[in-house]
Amino acid sequence: MEGESTSAVLSGFVLGALSFQHLNTDSDTEGFLLGEVKGEAKNSITDSQMDDVEVIYTIDIQKSIPCYRLFSFYNSSGDINKEALMKILSSVKKTVVGWYKFRRHSDQIVTFRERLLHKNLQKHFSSQDLVFLLLTPSIITESCSTHRLEHALYKPQKGLFHRVPLVVANLGMSEQLGYKTVSTSCMSSGFSRAVKTHSSEFFEDDGSLKEVHKINKMYSSLQGELKSICKKVEHSEQAVEKLLKDINRLKQEIKKRKREQAQAIREKNVQKDPQENIFLCQALRTFFPDCEFLHSCVISLKSRHISKSRCNTNHHLNMIDNLTLMVEYTDIPEDSPPGTPQIVKRKCLDIGDGWQFKKSRLVEIENNPSKTDTDSSNQEKATTISSPETDEEIEKMKGSDEYPPSPTF
Amino acid sequence: MARRAVQAALAVHLESDAFLVCLNHALSTEKEEVMGLCIGELKDDPRYDSEFARTGTETRPVAEKVDPVRIVHIHSVIILRRFEKRKDRVEISPEQLFAASTEAERLAKLTGRPLRVVGWYHSHPHITVWPSHVDIRTQAMYQMMDRGFVGLIFSCFVGDKKANIGQVFYTCFQSIQAQKSSGYERIEIPLHIIPHVTMGKVCLESAVELPRILCQEEQEAFRRIHSLTHLDSVTKIHNGLVFTKNLCSQMSAVSGPLLQWLEDRLEQNQQQLQELQQEKEELIQQLSSLK
Question: What is the ipTM of this complex?
Answer without folding.
Answer: 0.89
